[in-house]
């Protein structure tokens, strides 16, 4: 079982346990003896089963096992201790006498669940106390409602504990945390002088109607096409792109995803430039010194902007193309999977490079059928010693790129994306769903680690929780318990070797993306990367995953560091890397 599925199982069991206790309590209050006993026994078993899932999570290296042990386990234990012993007695006697204990157990389980889902990491003493106060208050109310008579001492003690927990808990939760420096609105530096442009492009953003999947689709497009024009260059070129906004009311910018341009050219509105409003323009200029497959997209209202079509391909080649070199930017436009299927015969013996790009917010699965192939590069960085693969799929995270290379065989070859043939040299029928998936961490040949000591370390815990710092409370995607713009920036000095640990406590995948730098993957879930060095700008952090990555701080500025599920980024999962 993966940590993700263990987590899901644990969650389901916790919900069942809470529902069982509450249902049992209600049934016994209504004197429905068999139902009450049945639900109570079920809840008891479910609560005990959590001991198994929590232990399994701890053994799988789940980073937050301790928190389950500290919050969920004691509340479960209290539930079992209070309700369990009363069950045999109630089986013969007055079933109503166990109503309050069963409800108490239900409140305890529910509050543990609420702490897990709403509050998240890090769990503070204040939240723990509030949870206890909530359980006691709900129990007291049930007591009153059912007209049962607890002894005076019991009710006084319970009242005392509840009030104390409430007061202390509220105090601890409301006390202001240290205010992070919010890194917005600083001075934008002028474009770095990089010399006379050798490649010039103009991109005009506008609302447009484009053909997709055989119908007219309302889109936001660069130069009236989705994807926008493919920008290409040769290493050493000076690329100049003039961005104009005709009528995109939410503003537009260009971010060169994976291209480590100077900060002033990075295209993050409010951080490296102001958004380009309708009627305005902005000129980007940078030297193309990274070879490989990249893409560009708007970073203004990025979730809707990219989804509506404001993206395109950026490819920098080491030399003029030899053989076949095609880009396959995958995107979902108004429910239509792009690109539309294409068939282009290739003569046997010709070298082929397929540049796969995932411009969506979720992972896609790519499978190349009909030929052995190698993964030559990921995220624009060449792999060392990639071996031939056959009948193997690759998973590309949101924002990520894989270059697949092969020599065209005499028989047809087809690329499938999520089971759909997207690019082929002829008809191929293959079922690729059962193919194994490549693990890049063990692919290719390793080389000596470039760094052995680190000047700085950061930990990012990706999670979901209530964000109370804005004007309206929201259920945000959080990093270390806070949501943008309240996440403290990571501060580094030029030249630092920075190591960061990134942990996913939530139930969904977070494709992580740091601007302006490529990170070297050190390990995932405690297992050291043993294959080719991997220098990535986008990687999937799955539920339960713990990644260790490192980079050299060699590109000064203020950089976005965020989840590339762009809806998550807009719902808080974005922070900044800042040079002191
Ligand atoms: Cu491709 Cu900040 O994003
Ligand atoms: Cu995310």
TrEMBL record:
Protein known as: Multicopper oxidase family protein
PANTHER family named among the record's database cross-references: FI03373P-RELATED, MULTI-COPPER OXIDASE
InterPro entries, A to Z: Cu-oxidase-like_N, Cu-oxidase_C, Cu-oxidase_fam, Cu_oxidase_Cu_BS, Cupredoxin
Membrane-crossing segments per the record: 6-23, 35-57, 69-87, 99-121, 127-146, 158-179
Pfam annotation, one family: Cu-oxidase_3
Domain Plastocyanin-like: 211-319, 480-578
Alphabetized UniProt keyword annotations: Copper, Membrane, Metal-binding, Oxidoreductase, Transmembrane, Transmembrane helix
Molecular function terms from GO: copper ion binding; oxidoreductase activity
PROSITE patterns cross-referenced by the UniProt entry: MULTICOPPER_OXIDASE2
Keyword Metal-binding: yes
């Amino acid at each position: 079982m993966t940590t993700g599925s263990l987590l899901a199982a644990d969650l389901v069991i916790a919900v069942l346990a809470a529902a069982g206790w509450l249902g049992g309590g209600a049934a016994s209050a209504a004197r429905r003896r068999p139902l009450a006993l049945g639900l109570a026994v079920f809840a008891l078993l479910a609560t005990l089963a959590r001991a198994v899932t929590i232990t399994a999570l701890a053994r799988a290296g789940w980073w937050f096992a301790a928190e389950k042990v500290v919050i969920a386990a004691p509340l479960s234990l209290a539930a079992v201790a209070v309700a369990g012993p009363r069950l045999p007695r109630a089986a013969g006697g007055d079933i109503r006498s166990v109503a309050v204990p069963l409800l108490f157990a239900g409140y305890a389980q529910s509050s543990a669940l609420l702490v897990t889902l709403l509050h998240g990491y890090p769990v503070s003493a204040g939240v723990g106390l509030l949870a206890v106060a909530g359980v006691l208050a709900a129990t007291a109310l049930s007591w009153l409602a059912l007209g049962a008579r607890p002894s005076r001492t019991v009710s006084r003690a319970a009242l005392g504990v509840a009030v104390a927990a409430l007061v202390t808990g509220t105090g601890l939760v409301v006390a202001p945390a240290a205010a992070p420096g919010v890194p917005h609105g600083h001075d934008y530096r002028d474009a770095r002088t990089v010399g006379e442009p050798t490649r010039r492009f103009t991109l005009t953003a506008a609302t447009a109607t484009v053909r997709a999947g055989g119908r007219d689709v309302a889109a936001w497009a660069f130069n009236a096409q989705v994807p926008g024009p493919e920008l290409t260059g040769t290493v050493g070129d000076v690329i100049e792109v003039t961005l104009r906004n005709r009528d995109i009311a939410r503003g537009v910018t260009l971010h060169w995803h994976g291209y480590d341009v100077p900060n002033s050219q990075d295209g993050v509105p409010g951080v490296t430039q102001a958004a380009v409003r309708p009627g305005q323009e902005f000129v980007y200029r940078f030297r193309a010194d990274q070879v490989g497959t990249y893409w560009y997209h708007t970073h203004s209202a990025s979730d809707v902007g990219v989804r509506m079509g404001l993206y395109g391909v950026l490819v920098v080649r080491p030399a003029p193309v030899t053989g076949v070199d095609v880009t396959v930017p995958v995107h979902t436009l108004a429910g239509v999977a792009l690109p539309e299927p294409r068939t282009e015969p290739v003569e046997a013996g010709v070298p082929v490079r397929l540049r796969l790009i995932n411009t969506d917010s979720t992972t896609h699965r790519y499978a190349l059928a009909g030929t052995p192939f190698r993964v030559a590069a990921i995220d624009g960085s060449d792999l060392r010693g990639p071996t031939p693969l056959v009948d193997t799929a690759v998973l590309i995270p949101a924002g990520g790129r894989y270059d697949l290379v092969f020599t065209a065989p005499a028989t047809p070859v087809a690329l499938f994306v999520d089971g759909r043939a997207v690019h082929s040299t002829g008809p191929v029928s293959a079922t690729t769903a059962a193919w194994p998936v490549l693990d890049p961490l063990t692919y290719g040949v390793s080389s000596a680690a470039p760094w052995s000591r680190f000047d700085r370390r950061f930990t990012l815990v990706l999670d979901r929780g209530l964000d109370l710092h804005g004007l309206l409370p929201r259920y945000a995607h959080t990093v270390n318990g806070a949501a943008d713009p309240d996440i403290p920036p990571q501060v580094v000095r030029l030249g630092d070797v920075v190591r960061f640990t990134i942990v996913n406590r939530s139930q969904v995948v977070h494709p992580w993306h740091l601007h302006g730098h490529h990170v070297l993957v050190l390990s995932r879930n405690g297992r050291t990367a043993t294959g080719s060095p991997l220098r990535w700008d986008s990687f999937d952090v799955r539920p339960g995953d713990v990644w260790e990555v490192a980079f050299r701080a060699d590109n000064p500025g203020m950089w976005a560091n965020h989840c590339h599920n762009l809806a998550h980024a807009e719902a808080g999962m974005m922070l900044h890397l800042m040079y002191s």
